[in-house]
Amino acid sequence: MFGKCPGAANIQTPTLEIKKCPECGEEVEIFSTDIKVKCCKCGFTIYHDIESCLQWCKYAEKCIGKDFYNRLKNKEKRDE
User: Fold this and answer.
1) Residues 6+ away with beta carbon under 8 Å from 31
2) Taking a C-beta distance cutoff of 8 angstroms, is the pair 21, 42 a contact?
3) Tens digit of each residue's pLDDT, the chain (80 residues)
4) Among 13, 15, 23, which Cα is nearest to 68's?
5) 6, 12, 41, 75: which one has the fewest Cβ atoms less than 10 Å from its Cβ?
6) 27-31 and 36-38: which strand pairing?
7) 32, 11 in Cβ contact below 8 A?
8) Residue 51 φ/ψ region, left for φ over 0, alpha for ψ in the -120 to 50 degree band, beta for the rest
9) CA 32, CA 51: separation in Å to the nearest integer?
10) How far apart are CA 67 and CA 12, in angstroms?
11) Which pTM value belongs to this model?
């Protein structure tokens, strides 16, 4: 990694957030590296509402490393 990028902090060290499913009210765990998750109770898809620097920063690949960048980009494509 080059320098210290504050935008990459949640990618390099994922953080956990608990959201309530808007459909059934169940608590759902979503990590900062997840694009979306399904509620285990009702199956409703809950999207992460924070845009990642991975989506817009031209230095993202260099910042987090090529392998990790490609793994997250491929995950993002599969989740669409």
Assistant:
1) 14, 15, 16, 17
2) yes
3) 455 676 666 666 778 989 999 999 999 999 877 878 999 999 999 877 655 677 777 888 888 788 888 877 776 665 55
4) 13
5) 6
6) unpaired
7) yes
8) beta
9) 10
10) 12
11) 0.53
